[in-house]
Write a structure and sequence with these properties.
- By secondary structure, this protein is mainly alpha-helical.
- The chain is 51% helix and 4% strand.
- The chain is built from 18 helices and 4 strands.
- Helix 16 links the parallel strand 2 and strand 3.
- It starts with 6 loop residues before the first helix and ends in a 5-residue tail after the last helix.
């Protein structure tokens, strides 16, 4: 006889196995593309995809786990078995319909099912036209087949819920259920890492199909429903016609100049792109800001090129990242980086330089999965990534991960091994709130303004140290 308290783990296992089977079905349905993948890549699809599968499983298990707790307290008269079976049947039908619809929609659209079909609810004719060429009979057969497989799987893995053992109190039984419920938090957020799981966690390949196959459809649909509700635009200051007229000149191509000057000492230089977190012109002296906070940048401006007629591309790091690397304009109420199916189609500096024979690497002391940045960077074609998990525990000395001096020191050590010419990008983090930097404060005070100045000064200082050591390593001034 099965142990009653094994019900919750068995129920979790049922959904997890079901999602693995639907992933296998997706690969079989798109066998033409699957055949182009190496066996280890196919295995990685299941391995990387397991985090989203487990997250979706945790969400689906929450209500049955809650019912189990209530049933343990209420006793045998509570219709626990019927309620859980009813919920599971409804959830299975919804998940299966989404899974089968996704099989054919992916062939037509090239991305996994999300909230996009909801846009067509008011135009059912167009929706029907989109599905006009779908193999309806095959899809219906797969739908019925998956439901049958799900029923058999539930019967074999979960089965009936045993009665409470004799002498085992209801309170103790409910407590055991609460403990299992608490454990759901771990798979629900994808682990113990600081950033909850998102699509970036399953992106691992330079083949878009492999990344797409690792996505859990049920999780993706629900997640996109929340993402697309960006709310009203708080920056609607001008009518659209007026705003268009004001910025039209920005999109007018400048006349070709014959007196252009080349700034390069070599036609194919190594490119080191360092993105400084939260830096502002208000604290950069040569830009008219406060003097003395950024001596390194001020010194570079005297010997290099400084662009002074620029505006920030956004109010968050992920917006600035897409603007810097893809030239994508700021979106006030959301960010395109939240939508991997869209960022896959953006141009990217890494892609352009890769076509010119450049190798590439990306360095960041924090977690690349934050704000879906990893999915954007993986599809951009970076060949190697260094992030928080790649640093030793003692080097993760910031709330966000590894401080900037640790990040730049590692990059300096590894640059000689990077195949030339290279395009290496580094994104700092120490000047992000809470501005806790590992150096004595230059600006006294405990208020946020003083802490921010200290963080800017620190990052500017370690940047200067990095450039000085890089020049020594290079054997002379950097090109």
């Amino acid at each position: 006889m099965r142990n009653r308290f094994a019900f919750q783990p068995r129920y979790f296992l049922f959904w997890l196995i079901y999602f693995v089977l639907t992933k296998a079905l997706f690969l079989l349905y798109h066998s033409t593309q699957t055949k182009g993948l190496l066996p280890e890549v196919v295995a990685s699809i299941f391995g990387y995809g397991l985090r989203l599968d487990a997250s979706a499983t945790a969400y689906l298990s929450a209500i049955p786990f809650g019912l189990f707790i209530v049933g343990s307290l209420a006793g045998p008269r509570f219709p626990l078995e019927r309620l859980i079976r009813f919920f599971t049947a409804v959830a299975a039908i919804v998940v299966t319909v989404l899974t089968v619809a996704d099989l054919e929609l992916y062939r037509a659209w090239g991305f996994r099912l999300d909230a996009t079909p909801l846009q067509y609810l008011n135009t059912p004719g167009e929706m029907a036209a989109s599905a006009g060429s779908a193999p309806v009979a095959l899809l219906l057969l797969l739908l019925v087949g998956l439901l049958v497989v799900g029923w058999v799987l539930y019967t074999k893995v979960v089965g009936r819920i045993p009665v409470l053992p004799a002498g085992f109190g209801r309170g103790r039984a409910a407590l055991a259920g609460v403990l299992y419920m608490a454990l759901l938090v771990l798979p629900l957020r994808g682990g113990v890492q600081q950033i909850p799981v998102n699509q970036s966690d399953v992106y691992f390949s330079n083949r878009p199909f492999a990344n797409h196959a690792a996505v859990n459809v049920a999780w993706n649909v629900v997640n996109s429903l929340f993402l697309q509700n960006a709310g009203p635009n708080p920056y609607q200051f001008l009518p659209d016609t007026t705003a268009t007229r004001v910025v039209q000149a920005l999109y007018t191509p400048a006349a070709t100049r014959s007196d252009s000057v080349s700034l390069l000492r070599t036609p194919r230089p190594n490119v080191l792109f360092i993105i400084l977190e939260s830096f502002t012109g208000k604290l950069v002296g040569h830009l008219g800001g406060e003097q003395g906070v950024t001596p390194t940048l001020d010194s570079l401006a005297r010997t290099g090129v400084s662009f002074r007629h620029l505006y920030a591309a956004g109010d968050r790091s992920q917006k600035g990242l897409v603007a810097l690397l893809s030239g994508y304009p700021n979106q006030p109420a959301t960010s395109i980086i939240k939508y991997p199916r869209k960022t896959e189609r953006l141009p990217h500096l890494c892609q352009s330089l890769k076509a010119a024979g450049y190798s590439s690497a990306y360095y960041h002391g924090g977690e690349l999965a934050f704000a879906n940045m990893k999915s954007y960077l993986v599809t951009a074609g970076y060949e190697r990534f260094t992030e928080r998990s790649d640093f030793a525990r003692q080097e993760q000395n910031s709330k966000w991960g590894a401080h900037d001096h640790v990040l730049l020191a590692r990059m300096l050590r590894e640059l000689p091994q990077q195949r030339q010419p290279f395009f290496v990008t580094a994104f700092t983090l120490s000047s992000h709130e809470p501005f806790d930097v590992p150096m004595p404060p230059r600006y006294l005070g405990t208020d946020e303004a003083a802490q921010f100045r200290n963080s800017i000064y620190y990052t500017d200082h370690v940047l200067g140290q990095f450039l000085a050591r890089a020049q020594q390593q290079h054997g002379g001034p950097l090109p």
